[in-house]
């Protein structure tokens, strides 16, 4: 689309905005009527470990959103010469799960408890048994039940419980709603009715009956909406939270807020059955859209969530992915700077990560654990990053870098083995996105080796979840009678550029050897948690 045409769309309010609050970056993306990104803004932020709880302050949420949007406004003004005043539609996405509990005065009762916390093991296990359904530690219901079991005084005062995306959407619009994908990370969903599972709601009510709380669970959970349904409009107060400068006009329609898993599925065109995607960044998770329910519950190994339009999805999730090798990258860069040199960040990452392709297929016996936080899948409840080797191992830079990439995928592979080997799940394609794939070829090769499956990356996948939620806003604003999958296939990805890498037998065997050593060494990681306090 020509620049002057895009400019006219901006002036006429024909563009769509997507906002996503990721683990380390808040990103805003503006797209045109052809669903192409035309401007971006961003703001880096970090979680805080406060009294043993991983959290972000609500002040940082709004400061980060406004700074990210301000950067977007500057990009629009500098590129197209006009202010961003009007929008056709917009949407909000964020990290799934977690615990944001408010009283009837809209006061936050306890600091936001994010998905990263692994304090809810007992609660999650009891709920999984109660429902005969996998309830991960990250889920909002696990956090709520943990607070109940722990006797936390604030629970009696809860009036509204939501996710980060649901909270931001509520403040922008006044609507206490959630997209079904994000809602499926709060409480189990009935994919037939597209609502919270009634039988499980009743079971939970009986489980906590003796506490005599003045609320019932359905009354404090957000209402569920499907992709394409309207979810309110941007209020004057919401517009000022987003844009304190006062330029952006209120009245913008919003699509249902979604979690990062759902927007990742949209951004990789992976919402149809027999498709899947793997998102690899601060955390890592694979989403496979199922043709039928799994034969049984795989508690702690496989989560069940939904696409933004309500199809059942199996998720294998690891809390940790690139965080530890990012820490090593910072250390290596400090070495380079100490020697008096400076290398641009992108080039620095590319050169070191490409060394992984020169390493031994099994990483030469090197064994790191990237556990900045705990991992439910392997029974580790706290993080202790480790690097272990025997003196006989081949301790080279290439093997070290390859081992850091492999360990980022260890937990993911353990979960995926269940889907492929025990449930025989059929899949036509897996699309990758996230920071793990930024260095061309390397991330794809490592992921293909780990999942023994071809991995495709769309040229647009780097736009990520902010683009995904912008597409959901566009779907709400522009759809006729087509399904979300039809809309994406026909109006977004029809001419998309895709690169696909297939694993070699040697690469697969190399990862398998690494994984066997990874499993064998888990007692070392557990000992570190037990003895390093």
Question: What does this protein structure show overall?
Answer:
39% of the residues lie in helices and 17% in strands. By secondary structure, the chain is of the alpha/beta class. A hairpin with a 3-residue loop joins strand 14 (275-280) and strand 15 (284-289). 50% of the residues are buried.
Blueprint of the fold:
Elements lengths: L2 H10 L3 E6 L3 E7 L5 E8 L3 E3 L2 E3 L2 H23 L8 E6 L5 E3 L18 H11 L8 H10 L10 E3 L1 H10 L3 E3 H4 L5 E2 L4 E2 L1 H10 L9 H4 L2 E3 L10 H7 L15 E2 H8 L7 E6 L3 E6 L13 E4 L5 E7 L4 H16 L6 H10 L12 E3 L16 E3 L8 H11 L2 H13 L6 E5 L8 H10 L3 E4 L5 H15 L5 H8 L6 E4 L3 H16 L1 H10 L2
Parallel strand pairs: 1-6, 6-13, 9-12, 14-20, 20-21
Antiparallel strand pairs: 1-2, 2-3, 4-5, 7-8, 10-11, 14-15, 15-17, 16-17, 18-19, 21-22
Helix pairs in contact: 3-4, 10-16, 15-18
SS class? alpha/beta
Low-confidence residue ranges: none
SS elements, strand count: 22
The average pLDDT value, as a whole number, equals 95
Mass-distribution shape? globular
Largest sheet: 7 strands, mixed
């Amino acid at each position: 689309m020509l620049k002057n045409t895009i400019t006219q769309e901006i002036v006429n309010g024909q563009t769509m905005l997507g906002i996503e609050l990721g683990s380390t970056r808040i990103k805003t993306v503006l797209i045109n009527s052809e669903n192409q990104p035309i401007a971006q803004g961003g703001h880096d932020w970090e979680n805080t470990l406060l009294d043993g709880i991983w959290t972000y302050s609500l002040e940082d949420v709004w400061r980060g959103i406004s700074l990210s949007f301000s950067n977007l406004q500057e990009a629009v003004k500098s590129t197209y010469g006009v202010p961003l005043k009007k929008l056709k539609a917009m949407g909000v996405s964020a990290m799934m799960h977690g615990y944001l509990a408010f009283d009837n005065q809209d006061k936050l009762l306890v600091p936001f408890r994010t998905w990263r916390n692994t304090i809810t093991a007992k609660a999650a296990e009891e709920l999984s048994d109660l429902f005969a359904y996998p309830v991960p530690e990250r889920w909002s219901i696990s956090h709520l039940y943990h607070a109940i079991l722990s006797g936390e005084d604030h629970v009696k005062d809860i009036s509204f419980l939501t996710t980060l995306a649901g909270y931001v959407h509520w403040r922008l619009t006044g609507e206490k709603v959630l997209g079904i994908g994000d809602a499926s990370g709060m409480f189990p969903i009935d994919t037939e009715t597209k609502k919270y599972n009634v039988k499980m709601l009743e079971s939970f009510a009986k489980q906590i009956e003796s506490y005599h709380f003045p609320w019932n669970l359905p009354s404090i959970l957000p209402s569920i909406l499907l992709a394409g349904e309207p979810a309110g409009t941007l209020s004057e107060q919401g517009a000022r939270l987003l844009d304190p400068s006062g330029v952006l006009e209120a009245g913008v329609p919003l699509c249902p807020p979604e979690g990062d898993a759902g927007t990742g599925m949209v951004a990789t065109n992976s919402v149809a059955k027999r498709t899947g995607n793997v998102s690899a960044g601060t955390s890592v998770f694979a989403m496979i859209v199922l043709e039928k329910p799994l034969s049984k519950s795989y508690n702690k190994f496989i989560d069940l969530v939904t696409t933004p339009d309500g199809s059942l999805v199996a998720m294998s999730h690891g809390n940790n992915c690139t965080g530890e090798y990012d820490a090593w990258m910072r250390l290596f860069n400090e070495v380079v700077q100490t020697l008096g040199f400076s290398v641009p960040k992108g080039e620095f990452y590319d050169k070191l990560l490409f060394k992984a392709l020169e390493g031994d297929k099994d990483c030469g016996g090197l064994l790191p654990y990237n556990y900045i936080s705990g991992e439910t899948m392997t029974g580790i409840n706290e993080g202790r990053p480790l690097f272990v080797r025997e003196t006989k191992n081949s301790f080279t830079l290439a093997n070290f870098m390859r081992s850091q990439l492999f360990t980022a995928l260890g937990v993911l592979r353990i979960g995926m083995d269940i889907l492929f080997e025990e449930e025989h799940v059929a899949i036509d394609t897996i699309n990758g996105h996230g920071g793990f794939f930024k260095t061309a070829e390397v991330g794809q090769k490592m992921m293909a080796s780990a999942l023994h499956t071809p991995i495709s990356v769309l040229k647009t996948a780097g736009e990520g979840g902010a683009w995904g939620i912008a597409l959901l806003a566009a779907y709400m604003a522009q759809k006729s009678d087509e399904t979300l999958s039809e809309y994406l296939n026909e109006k977004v990805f029809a001419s998309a550029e895709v690169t696909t890498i297939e694993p070699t037998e040697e690469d697969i065997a190399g990862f398998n050897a690494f994984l066997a050593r990874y499993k064998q060494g888990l007692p070392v990681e557990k000992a570190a948690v037990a003895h390093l306090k």
